[in-house]
Amino acid sequence: MTKADLIEEVSRLAELTRKDSEVIVETIFDSIVRSLRVGDKIEIRGFGSFRTRQRKSRVGRNPKTGDRVEVPAKKIPFFKPSKELKDIVNTGDGSSAAPAAPAPTI
Question: Which pTM value belongs to this model?
């Protein structure tokens, strides 16, 4: 799904104009980015959480020339899905967040 698809889906489900839906989607994404830039953690219950992780500086290699390259330390965004989201994705039908019971062994 692309951002344009998401905007269309919001427009259809909420019965809003495409422009209003675009403003909503952009506002949500901008809010998440602003929070991550200042180091805040975003938690959306039943969906997951966004936060940043710090990567240490390291020595890499240029794949074309093989030369050593210093890669500086940096922050990277990280998403951790909630248990509910994992369960829904793994059940396949999305009708229940609870995983299926294992078959009895004989």
Answer: 0.70
